[in-house]
């Protein structure tokens, strides 16, 4: 069975600082991995996804994530946080070609001026 | 751009009422999903549909039913609303092609049951 763990339900960074949001997964088959972002009072939108091509995946708004099979991780990073990055971030895994995603519980990112 | 719309942003209902939440997508997607989102619990799948008139239970289907009579429309029905169904409801759709297809989300309906 697949599962996703997001370490840290709340992360706070200063504007301009590195953003690191952690995601670890469990899967018995090669996974597909996703990061979604939810801005206040909005639905979710895709930030980036790993589909077994390049292990370093670049997404929108300067975010990127690296798939590390040996660590079963897919951490999300951004070199320099902006106030507009304050949002809820969700990691998700899909495996087994069943079209459904298994979701992490989310990490709320706060960016301080 | 894919557009997923939900019939209401905010809804207030009374215990015992029958509640309909509507979702429409405009990209001819085969798959449609209903989730509920609660603080600290992330997204939980209620029901999923992979074709017209086809449905599959998700992780928390109790107290809910769904209807998909047309490809673009997926309805979530609360047969008899209860206070523990107060939540944010999110609809999503995706193309059926592969497992890597992106799910596109609507803005959500915040339902309060009094």
> What string, H for helix and E for strand, traces the elements of chain A in order?
EEEEEEEEEEE
Strand content of chain A: over 45%
User: Element order, helices and strands of chain B?
Assistant: EEEEEEEEEEE
User: How many extended strands of chain A?
Assistant: 11
Largest interface: A-B, 25 and 27 residues
- Measured by DSSP, the beta-strand proportion of chain B falls in over 45%
Main β-sheet description of chain B? 7 strands, mixed
Computed CA radius of gyration of chain A, to the nearest angstrom = 13 Å
The helix tally of chain B amounts to 0
Task: Provide a count of the helices of chain A.
Answer: 0
- What average pLDDT do the residues of chain B reach? 93
Low-confidence stretches of chain B at least 5 residues in length (pLDDT < 50)?
Answer: none
Characterize the overall form of chain B. Answer: globular
Distance between the termini of chain B: 37 Å
By oligomeric state, this entry counts as heterodimer
Specify the overall morphology of chain A. Answer: globular
Mind explaining what this structure looks like?
The complex is a heterodimer of chains A (113) and B (114). By secondary structure, chain A is mainly beta. In chain A, 0% of the residues lie in helices and 55% in strands. Chain A is built from no helices and eleven strands. In chain A, the strands form two sheets. In chain A, strands 2, 4, 5, 9, 10 and 11 form a six-stranded mixed beta sheet that branches. The mean pLDDT of chain A is 92. Chain B is built from no helices and eleven strands. The A-B interface holds A 9, 32, 34, 36, 41-46, 49, 51, 90, 94-101, 103-106 and B 4, 31, 33, 40-45, 48, 50, 58, 90, 92, 94, 96, 98-108.
């Amino acid at each position: 069975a697949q599962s996703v763990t997001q370490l840290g339900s709340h992360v706070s960074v200063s504007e301009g600082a590195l953003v690191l949001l952690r995601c670890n997964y469990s899967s018995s088959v090669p996974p597909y991995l996703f990061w979604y972002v939810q801005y206040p009072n909005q639905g979710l939108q895709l930030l980036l996804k790993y589909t077994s091509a390049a292990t370093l995946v670049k997404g929108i708004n300067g975010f990127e994530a690296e798939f590390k099979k040996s660590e079963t991780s897919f951490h999300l990073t951004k070199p320099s946080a902006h106030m507009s990055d304050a949002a809820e971030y969700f990691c998700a895994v899909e495996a087994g070609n069943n079209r459904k995603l298994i979701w992490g519980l989310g990490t709320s990112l706060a960016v301080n001026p | 751009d894919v557009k997923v719309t939900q019939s209401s942003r905010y809804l207030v209902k009374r215990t015992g009422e029958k509640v309909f939440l509507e979702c429409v997508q405009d990209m001819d997607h085969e798959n449609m999903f209903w989730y509920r989102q609660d603080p600290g619990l992330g997204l939980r799948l209620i029901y999923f549909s992979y074709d017209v008139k086809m449905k599959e239970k998700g992780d928390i289907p109790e107290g809910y039913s769904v209807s998909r009579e047309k490809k673009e429309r997926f309805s979530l029905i609360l047969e008899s609303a209860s206070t523990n169904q107060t939540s944010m409801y999110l609809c999503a759709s995706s193309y059926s092609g592969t497992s890597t297809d992106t799910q596109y989300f609507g803005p959500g309906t915040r339902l309060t049951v009094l």
